[in-house]
Specification:
308 residues; mainly beta; 5-stranded antiparallel β-sheet; 0% helix; binds magnesium ion
Length: 308
């Protein structure tokens, strides 16, 4: 199924050169609310979560088929790979961040902060120093639809950092309302974080494990901002409403990819990382682009980053 609408790629600036073959393909439909796409290159498949149905799905790049990867996935939401290719997962229902090891077992990375349960971890990324950063809005505890209704235990909604090695967890923001999608800049000196309540993306300096100098990077004109990913040129791609919005690193909106449903998250994948995958309400979409996703990170030992 393909949508060849001529308005699918909206070019607002000549720097938006992602056209590809101008086809948005619906790879699968039949979910309720999809999130968390992550491409697993070693297996040539994409995992994504159908949150209200409490299941993780797997799209196979070789056969084009979609199957259930895991039932009862604890209402998992955002996912990414660490530098070793292990899956990092935000379990909204269990209110924790976990890692799936190469043998399939799961390691809990963070479940509480100062003795209190998180709200419902939403999205997670790793820095090349091995630290793991995640957001903690309340969407998994406000109803039984996307998790398990429960009172919040922590004051507010924040970004947290899990230390490499010790796995100590630190709160690194104090002035966000609904932190959601997040992604590092190519040089990892900046963290982009979407705040869904305010419809904008903020930037923070990443300095010795703290986030400082928070600024509004860009405001999205419509929709609820959710997932954030970068391409290899440093452009910032944001899922919000029925579109993926592409911002130059200077904050200019340079183009959009229009989607027939409300988008939640995106990722780049395929062997060349030039395939855009979009989770949007009930369906998984993809488009081949003329740009590549940001390269996968190689882990850099802590000592080489000392003094940054
Ligand atoms: Mg999210």
């Amino acid at each position: 199924m393909k949508d060849n609408s001529p308005t699918m790629f909206e070019v607002l600036d000549e720097r938006f050169v992602c056209g590809g073959d101008d086809q948005l393909e619906q790879l699968w439909t039949g979910g309720r609310w999809l999130e968390g796409p992550v491409y697993v290159p070693v297996g040539k498949y994409l995992l994504f979560n159908d949150i209200p149905n409490n299941r993780t799905m797997r799209w196979d790049e070789t056969s084009g088929t979609v199957s259930t990867f895991e039932h009862s996935s604890d209402y998992s939401n955002g996912q990414s790979l660490d530098a070793q290719g292990r899956l990092l997962v935000c379990e909204q229902g269990a209110r924790r961040v976990v890692r799936t090891e190469h043998d399939g077992s799961r390691t809990v990375l963070a479940a509480t902060f100062e003795g209190k349960r998180f709200n419902s971890p939403n999205d997670v990324v790793e820095h090349s120093d091995g630290s793991i950063w995640f957001t903690d809005p309340p969407y998994g505890i406000t109803s039984d639809y996307e998790g398990v209704r429960a009172p919040a235990e922590l004051e507010g909604c924040h970004v947290y950092r899990i230390e490499p090695g010790t796995q100590a967890c630190r709160q690194v923001t104090a002035d966000m309302d609904r932190p959601n999608g997040l992604a590092f800049s190519l040089d990892e000196t900046t963290l982009y974080v979407a705040d869904t309540m305010h419809g904008h993306i903020r930037t923070f300096d990443v300095d010795s494990g703290q986030l400082t100098d928070g600024k509004v990077f860009a405001t999205v004109a419509f929709g609820k901002v959710d997932g954030v990913r970068l391409d290899a040129t440093g452009n910032v791609w944001v899922a919000a409403g029925p579109a993926i919005h592409c911002f130059h690193s200077d904050g200019t909106l340079i183009g959009r990819v229009h989607v027939p449903e409300i988008s939640s998250n995106l990722t780049f994948g395929g062997p060349k990382r030039n395939r855009l995958f979009i989770c949007a309400t009930t369906s998984l979409y993809s488009a081949l682009l003329n740009v590549n996703g940001a390269p996968r990170r190689t882990q850099i030992p802590n000592q080489k980053r000392a003094g940054r």
